[in-house]
Amino acid sequence: xxxxxxxxxxxxxxxxxxxxxxxxxxxxxxxxxxxxxxxxxxxxxxxxxxxxxxxxxxxxxxxxxxxxxxxxxxxxxxxxxxxxxxxxxxxxxxxxxxxxxxxxxxxxxxxxxxxxxxxxxxxxxxxxxxxxxxxxxxxxxxxxxxxxxxxxxxxxxxxxxxxxxxxxxxxxxxxxxxxxxxxxxxxxxxxxxxxxxxxxxxxxxxxxxxxxxxxxxxxxxxxxxxxxxxxxxxxxxxxxxxxxxxxxxxxxxxxxxxxx
Length: 260
What we know:
It is a single chain. By secondary structure, this protein is an alpha/beta fold. The protein is built from ten helices and eight strands. Strands 1-2-3-4-5-6-7-8 form an eight-stranded parallel β-sheet. α1 packs across α2, α2 runs parallel beside α3 (71-85) and α3 (71-85) crosses α4.
């Protein structure tokens, strides 16, 4: 899984979404993340089709929404996602939330069937707390590959990241720029000024130092390029300590059905 990807949450304008995906893939991105609930899988698929890229070179992920997590609904909704995306399989399929129709044994059993039938290459979970990650690992026959969570310098998720590492589960960060709030954090500003880069690049490089895959949303080409440039930014121990020292726990995504 490429450690930097393109997120597409709230990118629902058809042309804008397709253009962002195609631009990112042409620039060098090889990881695209979407979800049934984003209502843009068709547009993401159009962007993929526009890019001059072999399918095997792309890591594509989507998520099953909470209304379709009953065993009988998982396959149908996933097949619909594949049709919208224009692909035969996805590299990673997530349980979007441990909520709604989610049942560890039943839901993940249905995911196992998709895995066995070659419709998905990996099983993921999203927004799972430590107890739910452990439960999922025990319930699924196939490995749980990743847990996608809100994670950024204002919500470092240290305990959850360490728990996932202990279970050999990758961590993928959504909202890695705290929906733009990282631009106003003095500690991040100081590191960015020292390196002559943007606060976005600093935040993404910090996540990379933590072994976390980031999927920042970007629509305009300038932001797509700026995020991509974070790959070449190397933070030293002092930089990382400065960001670690921010000491905030600000959660931005907090629906009523969340497990925390």
